[in-house]
Write a structure and sequence with these properties.
With 76 residues, the protein is mainly α. It has one domain (3-75). It has helices at 3-27, 30-75. The longest helix is centred in the last third of the chain and has 46 residues, at 30-75. It is elongated and about 70 Å long.
Length: 76
């Protein structure tokens, strides 16, 4: 499959995806889909916060290791 065909396939998949959700929203009560949307957004925010906390924790560990290595190098 060449890149043009791959792009067309992805474009079709995206359009099908959008059409599916448009139809779902039209057929589903706003109370239901808005609750689902809220749950999705809340989960994404929670995940992003957890990823940030983990990133900062790893960054702090890396700084401590780098400092220890610098200190050891100076001691020799």
């Amino acid at each position: 499959m060449n890149s043009s065909n791959a792009k067309n396939k992805l474009d079709k998949q995206r359009l099908d995806f959008v059409r599916f959700w448009v139809e779902y929203i039209r057929k589903t009560s706003s109370d239901i889909w808005s609750k689902q949307q809220k749950e999705l957004i809340d989960a994404m925010i929670k995940s992003a916060n957890q990823n940030l906390k983990e990133y900062l924790r790893v960054k702090m560990i890396a700084k401590k290791i780098a400092k220890k290595l610098r200190d050891e190098k100076r001691a020799h």
